[in-house]
Write a structure and sequence with these properties.
- It is a single chain.
- By secondary structure, the chain is α/β, with parallel strands linked by helices.
- The protein has 14 helices and 23 strands.
- Strands 12-15-16-11-10-18-19 form a 7-stranded mixed sheet, with helices on both faces. Strands 7-6-5-8-9 form a 5-stranded parallel sheet, sandwiched between helices. Strands 3-4-23 form a 3-stranded antiparallel sheet, with no helix packed on it.
- β3 and β4 form a beta hairpin.
- The chain binds 2-aminohexanedioic acid.
- Homotetramer.
- Belongs to the aldehyde dehydrogenase family.
């Protein structure tokens, strides 16, 4: 924690310098109506100009026109643009990572980690640009061949949340660009600066791509700065066949049906209420580290944050006191200072939601360790809290909701089958884990009657997924999959082709139709 007599920390000089180095035009972040704040100090760090609705519509129309050309560029050439984006990200990792930390309040290694995740997905997408495979399928007709071809889809709309302000964009953007799509991005209103910086880096990559002789149309990528109204332009626009939206379940409930009503597609990555089961055979040192990172990391503001912990009766009294100690001692404070592990909440609303959930838990008879506001030396507009460990008897009330703050509900269990049911008895289905050395328990957790989540892990926490796997979850988490594996298919359209290379026209299913 900074001593109260040292000069107050301010980003007034650093933010414009970082933005300039990252290539953002100063006109975009001075004198605008949208105030960007750093949750570290609570101060306003920039005034960003918003995008008007008409302007947003025009950007989407331009992106559609760009798509019509970009789809004709061979996929491995499109991959070259993404490779150059990855190079820009490598070159600017420290600066962009630092800006992520300043704008979101992540500790330094997590700010850099976010940019690393962007680099990783670029690498993945470059490889993918030569692997957009379709199947060849056996046909029932002689001298025929059947195949699948994957084609570019159109403008991909990306709506992202504050907590991974740039990595989530990159999961979508890297795949969409390689797939032959144009991209239009509506970042969170809380994180416009990292969005502008990322856009500037893509711009540099585009300039290098063109300098190498690559052909990339103007308008291939756009950023819409603003609130719900600009988001709605993207959601409702007929030239946006795919909207990939990350955020709350409430947001997804609004976006999903609107896009579906015009027969657009969505990839929804919504709320999580992720759990872990600590079994009698768990390795407790490893489990403690896994639980602590997943529950307190990013100040509890990941979709994949660990929020529910089921601990077996036989180990509860040996394990939970160690956990309590970790909650009492974890260093909370300025995330840019080495040693601190928990930075601030994003804003006052997050703090109020955290306090309300704790009050509800207390009213339900829970015993709460931590959870209070901490003075990190930055005054009233910075919201630091000690992570809360909430020992509670039942999975009810606040335990069933996702509160985007570091609150871990701990519940005892005694029966493995019953705890599996409890594990799955929440509306969300993103990520999950089990800590065990019992192969039966581990395999059952991963089986059809085990975790009902999109991500299920053994002996690691639910957060911190790598880009190589498909990322997303079931139920109110929205069902979408982003990032690795075959998530790319959602960004393309599939055509089934049947080719007759014979001289006759046999019909399928033995149908006769001779005129
Ligand atoms: C999110 O919280 O929105 O698995 C994404 C993780 C990160 C991504 C989280 N790779 O925690």
């Amino acid at each position: 924690m900074p001593s109260h007599s040292s000069p107050p920390l301010s980003f007034a000089a650093e933010v414009p310098a970082l933005l300039a180095e990252l290539g953002v035009d100063a006109a975009r972040y001075t004198g605008g109506a949208l105030k960007a704040r750093s949750p570290i100090t609570g101060e306003i760090i920039a005034e960003v100009s918003g995008t008007g609705e008409a302007e947003a519509g025009a950007a989407i129309a331009r992106a559609h026109a760009a798509f019509l050309e970009w789809r004709l560029v061979p996929a491995p050439r499109r991959g070259e643009l993404v490779r150059l984006l990855g190079e820009e990200l490598r070159a600017h990792k420290e600066r962009l990572g630092r800006l992520v930390s300043i704008e979101v309040g992540k500790i330094t290694s997590e700010g850099f980690g976010e940019v690393q995740e962007m680099i990783d997905i670029c690498d993945f997408a470059v490889g993918l640009s030569r692997q957009l495979y379709g199947l060849t399928i056996a046909t029932e007709r002689p001298e025929h061949r059947m195949q699948e071809t994957w084609h570019p889809l159109g403008v991909t709309g990306i709506i992202s949340a504050f907590n991974f302000p740039v990595a989530v964009w990159s999961w979508n953007a890297a795949l969409a660009l390689v797939a032959g799509n144009a991209i239009v991005w509506k970042p969170s209103e809380k994180t416009p600066l990292t969005a502008l910086a990322t856009d500037a880096l893509l711009d540099r990559a585009l300039r290098r791509f063109k300098a190498e002789g690559g052909s990339a149309p103007d308008g291939l990528s756009a950023v819409l700065i603003g609130g719900r109204n600009v988001g709605e332009v993207l959601v409702d626009h007929p030239q946006v066949p795919l909207v990939s939206a990350t955020g709350s379940t409430a947001m997804g409930r609004a976006v999903g049906p609107r896009v579906a009503a015009r027969f657009g597609r969505t990839i929804l990555e919504l709320g999580g209420n992720n759990a872990a089961i600590v079994t009698p055979t768990a390795d407790f040192d490893l489990t403690l580290r896994g639980v602590v990172f997943a529950a307190m990391g990013t100040a509890g503001q990941r979709c994949t944050t660990l929020r529910r912990l089921f601990v077996h009766d036989s180990v509860y009294d040996s394990f939970v006191p160690r956990l309590r100690k970790a909650y009492e001692s974890v260093p909370v404070g300025n995330p840019l200072e080495e040693g601190n592990l928990v930075g601030p909440l994003i804003d006052r609303a997050a703090f109020e939601a955290q306090q309300a959930a704790l009050a509800e838990a207390r009213a339900a008879g829970a015993s709460v360790t931590g959870g209070g506001r901490e003075d990190a030396g930055f005054g009233p507009d910075a919201y630091y809290v000690r992570p809360a460990l909430v020992e509670i008897a039942e999975q009810a009330g606040p335990v069933e909701k996702e509160t985007f703050a570091p609150i871990l509900y701990v519940i005892r269990y005694s029966d493995f089958d019953a705890v599996l049911d409890l594990h799955n008895a929440v509306p969300q289905g993103l990520s999950s884990s089990i800590f065990t050395n019992d192969v039966r328990e581990a395999e059952t957790f991963l089986s059809a009657r085990g975790s009902d989540c999109g991500i299920a892990n053994v002996n690691i926490g639910p957060s911190g997924a790598e880009i190589g796997g498909a990322f997303g979850g079931e139920k109110e988490t929205g069902g979408g999959r982003e990032s690795g594996s075959d998530a790319w298919k959602a960004y393309m359209r599939r055509a089934t082709n049947t080719i007759n290379y014979g001289r006759t026209l046999p019909l399928a299913q033995g149908v006769k139709f001779d005129v």
